[in-house]
Amino acid sequence: SDHMENICGYLMKYTNLVTGWQYRYFVLNNDAGLLEYFVNEQSRHLKPRGTLQLAGAVISPSDEDSHTFTVNAASGEQYKLRATDAKERQHWVSRLQICTQHHTEAIGKNNPPLKSRSFSLASQGSANSPGVQRRPSQNAVSFFNVGHHRLPTGKRVPIMQPDHLVDVREMMSQAEGQQRDLIRSIECLPASGHLTSLDQDLLMLKATSMATMNCLNDCFHILQLQHASQQKGSLPAGTTISWLEPKVSLANHFKNGAAQNFPAEINKPASVREEQSIAEPCQLTREPEEINPDEELEDICDDKEDDLGAVEEQRSVILHLLSQLKLGMDLTRVVLPTFILEKRSLLEMYADFMSHPDLFITITNGGSAEERMIRFVEYYLTSFHEGRKGAIAKKPYNPIIGETFHCSWRMPRSNVATDAGTNSSAHSSSEQVTLPKDPEGQAEPDYYTVKFVAEQVSHHPPVSGFYAECVERNMCVNAHVWTKSKFLGMSIGVTMVGEGVLHLLEHGEEYTFSLPCAYARSILTVPWVELGGKVNINCAKTGYSASINFHTKPFYGGKLHRVTGEVKQNTTNTVVCRVQGEWNSVLEFTYSNGETKYVDLTKLSVTRKRVRPLEKQGPFESRRLWQHVTESLRDGDIDKATEHKRALEERQRNEERLRAETETPWCTKYFLKDGDGWVYHKPLWKTVSAAQTQQTDSN
């Protein structure tokens, strides 16, 4: 109470995307437990422009910066505010928290409980949506006392008695019944008109009420465990308090079966039974298979992910999913609904980042260490645009452990030679390196071949290894990536943990690089992808390095998909090239001599990858493994796709359980563990080294 002082002053308040931040004069009224604001100090004697009840509010400093904080009222209203500096923010936050705590406790002590009442949608009919209408009685006092039962004054129960648990269970059953009535009332509304069952606020109300009941059931479970421990003295060894399955039935109000009962085994399609009956992978041949590029055909598959139809239809499922997630929650083990999947595996997505093999091959053509580093940066920045399939953010399939993907690209030698001489007027092209003649005297093909292989080497954590090589140019790249995804509210963040190494064997150079984070934004409306974070590229031998920043869009203003970077010589700390632009549009490279080069990614030629037909692929190659899921998604049959996907996931879990019981380690096929990373079993640098050793011995 010593700190219960009224404070006032100017703060910036965020209004909307159009108006943005505006200065407003705020007054903290401790006696009334109100936060009020006015246009300015001179209008303080007038009616406030806005008022928030602080009882039950949550005051949260923001992670965005040291100036911003939010006030989330119990009514659902929110003020996003910004102080002039960190000290002023702390002053406001501490005073608001003290006032909030005081009035929240006062409500519980001084107000009698209100009689339980049901929420009637009929009384809301004249409003645009329940989120904008407030009944006079819907203040903080009524909010905190609906269904609240207090013990008689002065009586404290040290240990929860069994009959109290029965009372709680009965009250929760009543609440569940009211929640079901609420859901039915919403669903009985017409599909069109003034207030519809598809109203965004009503959908959010369904999701949040469901999440509330699930949370209450979890808490009740914890109370039961605590009661058992109080009776026995302590919890039994090995007991864990785990989250329960949702107690509120989703029934049939999700169109595509968030809680559907799948048909019995006898009724499952043959393809599903086949998916579940594939033998244990370690029992199949785990010997590396040499893929003949001549068996691969140019890919004709072109699944652009620009269709919003399924996402629009399934918004209620998304809301339900979001209601069960917590900020910062790891999504690795969360099973996401099938309709948000794009029609390819994550392993194939890594291959699609190699869709400009001509730029990849010409890296080694650079006539100097400086030029080779710049060419690698150019290739690196052009790879992300084609890796995305369409503008809509969808999620590739999570690879099954042991899953592999193979493909290749063919580039006419004449095309690569031409590109090598037009990289930049600031850098002269190098002469083509004379390749060794075929020992059998056969004519060399008139194209270069880039081979690619990827394998899912671990399930928990999910780690993928991929490797690409061009034997004719004596270059290869090896990488491993651990995808860590987190829920960030209205977006999902994916951190790409790992490292890649490009080997230019002709020059004896190794370039280490990392990958940026990816974010799926606006997941409730039109989801889109942006990249963020700082990545570094280093070549220890030459002393050249590159620092690249992928900028996420600021909260207000700013450009999308912006990227900046620079290439420097570490010894002299001299910047030899700067780059700026958008990673999915136009990039501008400025060289040390002042010349500038523009690269329009939308006009870059894309070389189609070559893939073996399904009938020639092994059972654990990506396209054959996921073929039934992909076909169902193309046909728009979400239920069938979900069934095939679930069969694959169940098989993976069963295999993992069997390996754990028999203490059998997983056997990888193409990649070997090397410290914290994974390395291809037969990399080009080993092959070349062995050939050189053999040639030396023969001489």
Task: Explain what the structure shows.
Strands 11, 12, 13, 14, 15, 16, 17, 18, 19, 20, 21, 22 and 23 form a 13-stranded antiparallel sheet that branches. Helices cover 29% and strands 25% of the residues. It has 699 residues and is of the alpha+beta class. The chain contains 15 helices and 26 strands. Keywords: Acetylation, Endosome, Golgi apparatus, Lipid transport, Lipid-binding, Membrane, Transport.
Radius of gyration: 31 Å
Biggest β-sheet strands, sense, barrel? 13 strands, antiparallel
User: In what range is the share of β-strand residues?
Assistant: 15-25%
- What percentage of residues falls in helices of 4 or more residues? 25-40%
Q: Based on CA inertia axes, which overall geometry fits?
A: globular
N- to C-terminal distance: 92 Å
Q: Helices and strands: which structural class? A: alpha+beta
Q: Enumerate the spans where pLDDT stays under 50 for 5 or more consecutive residues.
A: 112-160, 232-267, 277-285, 418-439
Count of strand segments? 26
- Summed up, the helix count is 15
